[in-house]
Write a structure and sequence with these properties.
- By secondary structure, this protein is an alpha+beta fold.
- It has three domains: about 5-150 and about 420-425, Porin chaperone SurA, peptide-binding domain (Triger factor/SurA peptide-binding fold), CATH 1.10.4030; about 175-275, Chitinase A, domain 3 (Roll); about 280-385, Chitinase A, domain 3 (Roll).
- It contains 15 helices and eleven strands.
- The chain has helices at about 5-10, 40-60, 65-90, 95-110, 115-120, 125-150, 155-170, 190-205, 210-220, 240-245, 300-315, 320-325, 330-335, 350-355, 385-420; strands at about 30-35, 35-40, 175-185, 230-235, 255-260, 265-275, 280-290, 340, 365-370, 370-385, 420-425.
- The chain has a four-stranded antiparallel sheet with strand order 4-3-6-5. It has a four-stranded antiparallel sheet with strand order 8-7-10-9. It has a three-stranded antiparallel sheet with strand order 2-1-11.
- It starts with a helix and ends in a 5-residue tail after the last strand.
- The model is unreliable at about 1-25 (pLDDT under 50).
């Protein structure tokens, strides 16, 4: 976002310090009462001044002063009400977060903080006031997000439906190399027995049996003497029963058994062209957590974990035994410290760093997080296909954004309609 666009957002917020406008008005007066707050004449004048500065820089023509004043006043009323909502639910923005936001504004404008201050000063805008308004914008945004989120309800069926549509769009040009085994069911055949045979074949395939050999041996399908090979096809070129079962699976996937009017079918995705897959690394780890206390200092905890590590490495005890005895992570401690397979980004940064960098089987040195002191051992890593989950996440984000914008607009209308607003005089 450009600096001046952000300044518009900032200076159109609640209770602008009227000291900035003291040179413009001899006597500041209340222009609007909004619930238990007020908007001053200087607030409106300062906001209009900022808009005009921005418009001049952008070469933008503005409407008449009377129209502009009406628009600005309404924006200030809405901002005031939203700030009151933020205050009501106790949103606070500390200096650290504020500094990060202002650094980001400067960075986006290819400026240093010093250059940002200088530019504000040239335009007659106070840096301290700018900080205050950025803080308020952040708090208003957080309040709006928190309140509107609670109004949004997304059904799993909505996500699945949109994910399916996204999948169809993505798979329009995807080609699959298909292997097929068909077990025919004739009149009088024992369907349950043939289904069990199909399930046994799938079990063997999943254990590594050669698909073509199994097709030559068992298949009664049209490609049986080609080892079940249907070659490369797009979904629209496949038999409907194939296309209905293939849903963005990856190379090597076994599908089935599923039934049609002619019997039971098993498919294998021998290869795929044009499919954008999403793979993530999941890490299996175990840890021991000890928290400092009044009795046990950080240094004491660190020494204790070092001693535990020595005992584990010597073979005197196992990691599991020590976790059950010492770990203060109630979730994993009783499980011998086991955390299971997860992506590392679910953990706090210090813990994530250890999971991403430790060799398998090596116990870390003691390290500290917000939870306390840890030692951790990575016991395994694996690549997991998350293409389907990625599509569902994308679908969820699209639906959420749509509903958020709708609900945010409805919420603003509701709080505006429910607020006490009184204009003081016509000459502002």
């Amino acid at each position: 976002m450009k600096l001046w666009n952000y300044i518009i957002l900032a200076f159109l917020s609640l209770n602008i310090n009227h000291a900035v406008a003291q040179q413009e008005v001899a006597l500041d007066q209340v222009a609007v009462i909004v619930n238990d707050g007020v908007i001053l004449q200087s607030d409106i004048k300062t906001a209009m001044k900022t808009l005009k500065i921005n418009a001049k820089k952008e070469g933008q023509t503005l409407p008449s002063n009377s129209v502009l004043e009406e628009q600005v006043t309404e924006k200030l009323i809405l901002d005031t009400i939203q700030q009151q909502q933020a205050d009501r639910i106790g949103v606070k923005v500390d200096d650290g977060r504020l500094n990060e936001a202002i650094e980001e504004i400067a960075k986006n404008n290819q400026q240093t903080i010093a250059e940002l201050k200088e530019e504000l000063q040239k335009e007659g805008l106070n840096y301290a006031l700018f900080r205050d308004q950025v803080r308020k914008e952040i708090s208003v945004s957080e309040a709006r997000n928190a309140i509107v989120r609670r109004r949004i309800n997304i059904l799993p069926s909505e996500v699945d439906h949109l994910a399916s549509l996204l999948s169809q769009e993505s798979s329009a040009t995807v080609q699959y190399k298909i292997g097929h085994i068909q077990l025919r069911v004739e009149d009088g055949d024992d369907k349950a027995q043939i289904k069990q045979q199909a399930m046994d074949i799938v079990s063997e395939l999943e254990k590594g049996a050669d698909f073509k050999t199994m097709a030559y041996t068992f298949s009664k399908g049209p490609k049986a003497l080609k080892g079940g090979d249907w070659g490369w096809m797009r979904k629209e070129e496949m038999p409907t029963i194939f296309a209905d079962e293939i849903k963005m699976q990856n190379k090597g996937s076994i599908i089935g058994p599923f039934m049609s009017g002619s019997g039971f079918h098993i498919l294998k995705i021998e290869d795929v062209k044009g499919l954008q897959t999403v793979a993530v690394t999941e890490v299996n780890a175990r840890h021991i957590l000890i928290k400092p206390s009044i009795i046990l200092s950080d240094e004491g905890v660190k020494k204790e974990l070092i001693e535990i590590t020595k005992r584990i490495k010597s073979g005197e005890v196992t990691f599991s035994q020590m976790a059950k005895q010492y770990s203060q992570d109630t979730g994993s401690g009783t499980q011998g410290g086991e955390l299971g397979f997860h992506t590392s980004d679910i953990y706090v940064p210090e813990f994530k760093h250890q999971l991403d960098t430790l060799p398998i089987g090596q116990i870390s040195a003691p390290f500290k997080t917000v939870h306390g002191w840890h030692i951790v051992e990575v016991t395994g890593r694996k690549q997991v296909d998350r293409t389907d989950a990625s599509l569902k996440n994308k679908a969820y984000r699209i639906i959420f954004n749509r509903k958020f914008n709708e609900e945010a607009g409805a919420w603003l209308q509701e709080i505006r309609a429910g607020a006490f607003v009184e204009m003081i005089g016509d000459d502002v």
